[in-house]
Records
---
Amino acid sequence: MSYTLVEKIKIRLRQYKVENGLSNNEIVFTDLDKNVLIEELIEKAKLDIAKNRNYPDSYTEEMRNEDIEKNYLGMLIDLVLFDYYADGMDYETNHSENGVNRTMIKRESIVGDVTPFAKIL
């Protein structure tokens, strides 16, 4: 089955339920109010990848999106998930509460694998 980018992210966020149908199981996506946030985080992640990719001026936005979704889909999803889970933890690298300790990786470590375009002088 083919899913949209938002649906793929919602699956990773466990924002779905499986309903038993007569012929097969059907996935129903929940928390639809979160879709706007997810779409915004997708755009932010695409901009960050594009910045590191250093596209030539001849690349249109459509060409950039196609390249990102073809070559960096996993990274795109990871960036969105990172930003989603870091929401409310702005600028924190370590968080302790009720005996639970969390340390976030640096966001740059996710984007670090982007291969930039090189220009020949």
---
Amino acid sequence: LDMRGRNTLIVHGCRRIMDYAPETIRLSLGDCVLVITGERLICTSYLAGAVGVEGCICAMAFDEPPTPTHGREVRS
């Protein structure tokens, strides 16, 4: 992670952009998921596993990747 102030972030090692909205961006890093929250978030680039994010970044947190269900519905 390379962060410049609270407005620019570059995430290296990204495998996939999972969710992309102005308030939340979720990035798959393989063994974990990085959740970025804020306001007016945009992905400015996605090249060779590096994702650029700009906007007002409020928080970042690591989450577990989703468990594959192999086409079956999971009920709790």
---
Amino acid sequence: HEERRSLIAIGAGAGLSATFNAPLAGMAFVFEELRGGSRPGDFLAALLACAVSDSLARAAFGQGPIFGTLTFPEASLAYLTLALALGVIGGVLG
């Protein structure tokens, strides 16, 4: 049961690492999930799994983010004043 829990946490950390190009976040996730009652070898396995999954994801998809971002044109000053007015009204009503 403990080994199964460790393997699931390590796999989830590796997936997190590969998906978001963030091996440290994957390791932090594994540390949080395995706190208390884990073996030192589990952390080494997690380190290797996160590093390898991140390296493979970067080799396959490149260094940039996998999720794209939207670009919007700059808003004119009239829109910004409208947004400010709506924010103030919403704050007062809230």
---
Amino acid sequence: MASDPQRPNILLFVTDGMQARTISDNHDCRTPAVDGLIERGVRITGAHTPLPTCSPARASLMTGLLPHNHGVLEVEHGVDDDQCVLRTHHPHWAQRLRDSGYSTGYFGKWHVERTGELGQFGWDTFDIRGARGHADASQKGLAVDETLDPKTVKQYVGPDGYNDTLKYAVTHIPPNDRPVGGPATLACDWVEKVSSDDPWCCVVSYYEPNESLIVGREAYDLYDVDQIKLPETLRDDLSDRPNIYRRDQQIWKDVSDDEWRQILACYYGRITELDGQVKRLLDTLEATDQLENTIVIFTSDHGRYVGGHGLEAHNFGAFEEIYNVPLVVAGPGIAKGVTSEALVGFHELCPTILELAGQKPFDALDSHSFVDLLNDPDSAASNHRRGYAEYFGSRFRLTQRVYWEDDWKFVFNGFDFDELYNLADDPWETKNLVNNPDQADQAKHMM
């Protein structure tokens, strides 16, 4: 193991499209390994993505910059080359770690930029096999694949103008023999072989639980589908929210309650499978006597609706289901068994990881380290009272900015009227207060 306690190993586990609420107390979703991390670390319930789409969020993670500064404004596979350019003159934290003597390894989903040449961004060893074909594999041919249980295959037929997709299915293939098992297999092998003379940093990155909801039988059977709670806002009429939200909601209007429960069971099952991958990594750290000197970070690039506000995916609608992300940090020097409501950004992991590794953070005003919060959550909470995010649309152009301050949340909508919520009184965001005369001063302050 690394001998210097000021230079711990760092293991970063990044999921894709995972709601923060799935690791909250008494939730239907089962995550025993992550629950164990929470017990010996800090869970930050006020963590938010800077943009609820993979490529911009992940580029922000690496640079500490907001999307308008690093240049990746939307998902990289959906636009022309000149519309998705990561400005490489901005440094990545892995470069700083590698230059300081850390061994670096990256395994699984990249989706930050298009070259796939991670060496230029600071990663000594990397393997993103299957990254290009993963989405196609989850969408094509599997609805009739003999490995799937035909009783649980749902092919979603979209309205005019939308592609038909495989929505959910149960497979008999165990997770370690499917793509979900790949990143942890590669990472465990690397961690076992990496030199013990120097500290290391390893990222284990996933497409799951996003994409088509294909889950293994073992994880699926952990859930009583008929008893799964439907989202509180499934029938939200969105009457006082921007009209584009209601248009997007129409895509899902014919999904029945039973189908939503199946969707949720498969979504939760995929998260449970990811939790199993966390356990594999923790077991490897323990077996190689590296657990006590490794800071483990569990998070997600953004969330997913899965029925929240009658929506799916993670596009239109600036709601917490897609902006609020899980974040748990455990390891040497980290407070134990604490849940904090402080507001931090997913992109602020960049300066935080650098400080945890004994490095000077980048000179970037977009992000600030929250190591103080990890060391002393109660005393440092007042230092993290504000959050900011932005959205530039995906395949449809629009302008959206989100600002959090304490219990308040304001959404600037360049395409329609704005939104104002008090998350303490209205955690499900069902009452837009922006036109409430009693909140005029608050709306002006947030603007």
